[in-house]
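pinging the channel bc i need a second pair of eyes. not urgent but kinda urgent?? the chain im working w is below, pasted from the shared doc
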Amino acid sequence: MTHNDSFDKDYFSTNTYENTSFAKYSMYWWSNRFNAILARRYGKEGTRLLEIGSGMGHLIGSLEPQFETLALDINHWALAQSRAVAPNTGLNVGSAENLPFADASFGVVIIKHVVEHLRDPELAISELGRILAPGGILILATPNLDSLLKPLKGDAWIGYQDPTHIALKPPVEWLSLIEKAEMKPCKVFSDGFWDVPYIPLIPPMLQKLAFGSLGGLQAILGIPFLPMKWGESILVIAEKK
């Protein structure tokens, strides 16, 4: 089995995409809502927007009213499911490491939890810089090796649980690759501490309230304010120079 073959129907039903995760107010729903807010706030309405690793299409579908939307994923099955929720989006099969798009052809590119799955993330980020138009916006998310609470989880940390995470890097390396691709990071922040429990014997629900409240507030408000180390993922908004 190749690396791409691992992203099949079973993958989408056993990671964060199980049927219950489509319910309103699930973590999956809040993540899509937050990223959609970022795209609308930092991107220019009416421009071409591409989501790489679009999965089941829920995020890209929510952005159809404001943008000319295109989606790219390596998984045929997931793209087929996308048609129900993203009927006006151009759906493309392809890899982030070899994007089938012209130079400077997008105003916004979203790549949420994809780069950690790639054999050559440096090439992929170079491709992102290539297809973004000057002044275009990149929205990127990936597991955060500098998370303050990661040492409490040890080998059980969420970033280590997916065997297809083959390119985990500290934030400084991701930011260096982004700058090398001629994109300037404008905001670097995090998503909060949601991977409870962190401490033995304390009920997970109490830990969710204690550790996850700031991340929840950020998601509700749609305003990025959490410092980069205060969460399980690093999120970057960058502008093409």
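so The chain has one domain: 4-240. and The longest helix spans residues 204-221. — does that match what u expected or am i reading it wrong
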